[in-house]
Description:
glycosyltransferase activity; seven-stranded mixed beta sheet; Spore Coat Polysaccharide Biosynthesis Protein SpsA, Chain A; alpha/beta; cell wall biogenesis/degradation; disordered N terminus; 19 helices; 54% helix
Amino acid sequence: MAPPSFGLAQWWAKEARNGTPVVVTMENPNYSVVEIDGPEAAAFQSMDKGRGKNAKQFTWVLLLKAHRAVGCVAWLAAGLWALLGAIKKRLISQQGVAVESDKLGKGKLLFRFLRGVLALSLLMLAFEMIAYWNGWHFQKPSLHLPENLHIPETTEIRGWMHSAYLSWLSFRADYIAYPIQALSNFCVILFIIQSADRMILCFGCFWIKFKKIKPRIAGDPLKSDDVECSNFEFPMVLVQIPMCNEREVYEQSISAVCQIDWPRDRLLIQVLDDSDDQTIKILIKAEVSKWSQRGVNIVYRHRLVRTGYKAGNLKSAMSCDHVKDYEFVAIFDADFQPNPDFLKQTIPHFKGNPELGLVQARWSFVNKDENLLTRLQNINLCFHFEVEQQVNGVFLNFFGFNGTAGVWRIKALEDSGGWLERTTVEDMDIAVRAHLNGWKFIFLNDVKVPCELPESYEAYRKQQHRWHSGPMHLFRLCLPAIITSKISIWKKANLILLFFLLRKLILPFYSFTLFCVILPLTMFVPEAELPVWVICYVPVIMSVLNVLPAPRSFPFIVPYLLFENTMSVTKFNAMVSGLFKLGSSYEWVVTKKAGRSSESDLLAAAEMESKPANHPQLLRGVSDSELMELNKLKEQQKEFLHPVKRANKIYKKELALALLLLTGAVRSLLSAQGIHFYFLLFQGVSFLLVGLDLIGEQIS
């Protein structure tokens, strides 16, 4: 039994005293409490303060502390044992894993560079450890060897290795330290500039919250009372759902769009299917046929020539003759599930605002708590929408179109040249060209559209590669048009310096160079040491600012900081491939979806399943060929129930960086650099976990 607390009794005794010494003796043989107060207390000052606690109580406290310590050690040991088991299984035994292939132009050069730096670091570590054990280290290195530092004379040199080590120290200080220090200072300057930009954005977001600034609709033009009078308040709206082999999410996406609350004679839904899998085509056509029989104005469209990825798909759909009758177009990717009132919350903003070309809604995520990877993605995207998109929308009327969950004025698309197939970021491309033509954008932070986050690291990695290579490829193409455009010089500076260079190029460059290459190298070249505030204080402050839009994610702030540095190798590789137009800069891989549904979708699905009488009505008016397709569909669905064998991957670049950082951590122990050691250790473990694909979805 735990000992009772006497805090309340002691407080009550102090409040009730009137200057008379009080002696309280408990009948419990295990405890005795003595409180002396007043003038006579001086006689007892020499008494031992701990005499009131007997040996049994003291032993109980020690046991509690020992239990906590053992629990922490056991937790760390279990984690280390699990990591070693994963290393043995995936690296040594190679059970259920596939090694990432390095094709030409897809990071092969970067991997060779990292492998060379790692080999050199291991060689230097061995050399430094030999010097450390022999006591050859100087006390405090600097860019120049101090004049008062005792350099051993020729007679004091102990062997050829000692002589080689002294030559290495001199060469390191004179020729290696300066280039590393110069590159380090350059990256620190970029780091400070980017951090200042991040703080300005956060200040803008706080100002918006404080002043309660948000786009507002004048009046209520879409009131239900006005529907009976006429339809002039409801413009013609086209809804497009581009998809490609989206077996897991096509049904819930089409279902959500077909339930949008808008007059059916003023709404057309286009399902733009680029699937090359015949089974998936049959599934999607059957779903479209089902909703068409319910009276929804929905059409299925499949391209014969599948070029240009999503941009080519949208461009082909906009060339249809019936599109000329429509004024606005809403776009939803295959995993997005808009609420029924989506159009009523977005379309009214266009009324009385002829310069408005785009209304962008915010994303929400149905699987943000699925695993650690989705939680970390949620932090990033919450900051992107809450801070970046909202601030740019309020103060600049410009931001990058997110490619989905937005409504375009078709005239703005046509004036800007329409969809172009020149990059893999067609959404950013059309947004930049529309901005150059004077169109304004609005971001609605309170209108949210549920969607999915990638649950596996492989899918997330491919998505991030496309999101960071495409903007650099677009920058090469758009730079002449930006310079020669008629927009103001401030808007040109914002586009070139902030939108492209600072947030798309500089951020991945300094993150990778400073924290993944320079920092471990400074352990072997201590003359170019990085200050502690660059490694610890500023990154922690920036991480706190990033987590503010998602306050429930504060417990994950340290994993978020480490994971962002880990992703810098992928983003840097993508940025370089896009900037120099390498082979992987124009590559589109459809992000793998899991088919998660929100709670409301699950309830709606349960209701539909509870009404089997409605299903036969769906087959009325179906032709014989369609019935044959539906029968074939059932057979295909049975085949799909068998799981497809997949495996987790091993990522060589991340593993090479993990070994480099852990090697730097071992070297930092020799010079007793506390902050540097812990950062390198945890960052190295983070790279190791990602390199072994232990973050995100695990495939057994």
